[in-house]
Write a structure and sequence with these properties.
Layout (H helix, E strand, L loop, with lengths): L6 E5 L3 E6 L17 H6 L5 E3 L8 E8 L1 H12 L4 E9 L6 E4 L3 E3 L7 E3 L9 E9 L6 E8 L6 H8 L13 H4 L7 E9 L6 E5 L5
């Protein structure tokens, strides 16, 4: 088995929080090795575990599973009502000039370049990302910015496309970073660092954090 075993950060009778390594699918993608994923690995320990949301294969970090269909409905509703807090850390190309800001460009699929997404003002779905600069390093072609990202909507590839749209693609992104640059990095520098929610059973706030591995 490849060294892509997720870490169980928290588990009780209602929810599971796991830490997904980069390179592991969140859910089955069909066919042979692509059936190996975080969901199946967690279900080997907790057969009633159901994925509440997803992370891209190249993204690492915190992800939630619900114990059974009732808890899945509760947590799906929490996500729909946007009362689940999700923060990420990324390292992007170039130096961001603003210390913080918000990106609200609508996103949709790019039919000419699947599975890529794109900014689509006419047919795209609303998407909102907030960013805050943590550090800058390097210069010229090696300029980098470490940034904290708060996700308010959950569109496919939202953080990746939003950062690309303002001229700062994520380091190592195999789809959106410059081709010459993406191959130089061992992984995409995007990590889900924080997950906060109201516990569906106790109704108490819960918050979990994961250290950034890059």
């Amino acid at each position: 088995m490849p060294p892509l075993t997720p870490t169980i950060v928290y588990a009780d009778e209602a929810v599971i929080v796991a830490d997904k390594p980069a390179g592991l699918l969140s859910m089955p993608a069909g066919g042979g090795a692509r059936n190996d994923c975080l969901a199946s690995r967690v279900q080997a320990l907790y057969p009633d575990a159901l994925l509440v949301h997803r992370l891209d294969m190249a993204t690492s970090g915190l992800i939630m599973l619900a114990r059974g269909h009732e808890m899945l409905r509760c947590m799906n509703l929490a996500f729909e009502q946007r009362i689940v807090g999700k923060k990420y850390c990324a390292v992007v190309h170039g130096h961001m000039t603003e210390e913080q800001g918000e990106i609200t460009l609508p996103l949709g699929s790019d039919p000419d370049n699947p599975p890529r997404q794109k900014v689509d003002p006419l047919h795209g779905r609303p998407a909102r990302t907030r960013y805050r600069v943590l550090a800058r390093s390097g210069a010229g072609d090696d300029a980098r910015t470490r940034v904290e990202l708060t996700l308010y909507t959950g569109r496919t590839h939202q953080l990746r496309v939003h950062l690309l749209s303002i001229g700062h693609p994520i380091i190592g992104d195999p789809l959106y970073a410059p081709l010459a640059e993406a191959g130089r990095e061992p992984r995409m520098c995007l990590h889900a660092t924080s997950l906060a929610f109201i516990h569906p059973r106790t109704r108490l706030p819960a918050c979990f954090d994961s250290p950034v591995p890059f």
